[in-house]
Design goal:
- The protein is 29% helix and 31% strand.
- It folds into two domains: 78 residues, Alpha-Beta Plaits (2-Layer Sandwich), CATH 3.30.70; 169 residues, Rossmann fold (3-Layer(aba) Sandwich).
- The strands form three sheets. Strands 10-9-8-11-12-14-13-15 form an eight-stranded mixed beta sheet, sandwiched between helices.
- The C terminus is likely disordered.
- The chain is of the alpha/beta class.
Amino acid sequence: MTRRLSLLRVAVPGPLADQVGSLLLLSGAGGVVHEERPGETDLVVYGEDLRSLRLVKERADAALRSAGMVFRMVVSRAPVSADAWRNGPRFRSVTILPDLRLVPARSSGTPPKAAARGSAQGGASSSPHERPDRLFLHPALAFGFGDHATTRLAAREIDQLCAESVPRSVLDIGTGTGVLALLAARRGVSDVVGLDVDPVAIRVARRNARSNRLSARCHFEMGDASSVRRRFELVVANLELRTLLPLVPVATRLVRAGGTLVVTGFLSAHRQDVEQALEKHGFVTRAARSEGEFHLIVGARAGQSATRRGTARKTRSR
């Protein structure tokens, strides 16, 4: 049986599209599609649960009004089915790093030749100078296509960590369709675990690993972080604030001695709240980055000697 889709649509002036799109994401939208029109942009959120979309609408409307903006948001039935949405030309390639693009995968799931470069042990480059330039992704309704600012922030941090010294193990909490976990695997990490509570996310992430020939390096598991019984050299959590803060005690426990914790998904206005939560559980800020309204913190255990990251630094992404 073909499943019906619903959508939330809001038309905004072009210059405000990114800001309003970010508020939709913070309100619970998994992904926002930008449909450009002369002088205006339609922001569209698709979903299979009409009630969930209405909740996103209520939260976003309240957030916009508090920011002094009022736009008409409409929730309605979508003109396409779930299958047509997934197979349609709705997604474009996204540049997530200067030398890496996210590319919509073919619906067949056959690993493209370009994704097969590297060793036969999992697709990692045999030389740091032979880095792949594409990751192929299958879209999922509840998630974006890696084009959000916090995904770029986390991707840049993982990329830099791997360039300095490839971590032996990585845990990606709230992996979604696996973008950050797959990036770590492509950058040479041989032991990557992606964790999510959404079975659809795990199914799509595993498919993405197969499409990029990274299944030997990258494993996706369904469950929450409290179920994990091992520690990792690098733990990454790209989650909205209301999910991230309660998770801090668990996430800090999962970082091995001398390891690194990278957290993002929250607004720069809430940086102090996150830093205080980390400090309460024995972590201090080693680096901080921001892009637009969003922030990222790199944490390490308090009293830990200077790591390869060096002293704390604060930079603003261009």
